[in-house]
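Bench notes, afternoon.
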Amino acid sequence: MTQISLQPKTVFDCFAQINQIPRPSHKEQQMGAFLVEFGKGLGLETEQDATGNVLIRKPASPGLEHLKTTVLQSHMDMVCEKEADLEFDFERDPIQTYLDGEWMKAKGTTLGADDGIGVAMQMAILADKSIEHGPLECLFTVCEEEGLNGAMGLEAGFMKADYLINLDSEDEGLIFVSCAGGANTKAAFNADLTAAPEGSFFFKLQVSGLTGGHSGDDIEKKRANANKLLARLLAAMEQYDVRIADIQTGGLHNAIPRDGSVIACVPAAHKEAIRVLVNTMTAEFEEEYSATEPNLKVVLESADPAATVIDRATAHRLITALVSVPNGVIAMDQEIPDFVQTSSNLASVHMHREGGSDKARIDIVTSQRSNIMSARRNASQMVSGVFALAGAEVETGDGYPGWKLNPQSPLLSITVESYKRIFGKEPEIRAIHAGLECGLFSLKYPHMDMVSFGPTLRGVHSPDERLLVPTVQMVWDHLLEVLKNIPAK
């Protein structure tokens, strides 16, 4: 297959540089230092705030000093997900990219184009003296993927601009003008560890190969949730007196869980019944998710005996809660066709044994989203209620706000007209069922006019993440056209 050219070259060169630098959420120090050095190396005014956000200011092109100031913004952290059997250290190893036709992918890991490609575009614009633009500020935020912490910690007044273009969207040809707000609800079950029953058959039950994806953008795509499948299997096994020795499933709060496993046991007399049950339910899962989960795998294998298991009562309450808690789309928007209004994601379930004691703790993380704040609060209350009734400790965080549409937006008009001029067609104006930092910016900079657009990405927040290369050139051309047409002061 003939490989396509990586254009614009300067953008992809910058992206290659970025992918050599570790940048997990909460650990962007190297990336921040790199950007500070990059800005200062260009002789540009460069600042880093106490939160770790980096701002680089570039003066206007000669003759365009009269234009209003525009911020270009993206986040420097990336979601760190990998194939279960891949040896890879996101705090040390560079991302290995390759081309598959028109798509750029990574070898067994997330690609980091969310939002590394936005960072790369900003770097390319900062370095290129031939691009026409008014006064620019390039903002690179930290820890977007783990709660929008960088935007949350940004102080009012750090940016001086009138307009902001967020480069963290994932569909070329769509211009986003509104986003959902969200919050995480966490639950914890405290369990007693009791001696494993004698004569037990211990097994490892593993679900893997699921598609996963972004818990906002992909929540309506009817993909399976590994936590939910494992909970259903365990619920069916309760008739055979299943006891749980360990459960480790799911990962990031904003990713639909792709895999997970449980170590459990049943009386040896039920060994064959468990095998039959797993085979039967696997066939049911395959039928339910035939269109969305072609690689679904459920594996049952013998495991080494554990000395202790969690007490039966807590296990029952845990299993019942996991089966019952809302997951997926809760409500569709009443005004925007085919748009999710409210959703919840059962993100992770992890058991922790307290060393040297007879106690264990099972921590559960969920996330709720909605573009209507009262609906988001209601979704969080639904999730909290299920876990509270099951006897868990429950806490919902403050979350982050949504971003409301500004129907009188001058920047939106410029962005639409620029797109039509270049491509001869209308872009789509959309809301997004995911959290964008624009929601927090709008609180601290209520005067600021904002839009969001970017190249086409698929499979974000999973090792299937891929970037449609030709759309990078399209977004680049569109962005430069917008910058030339910013209004005068």
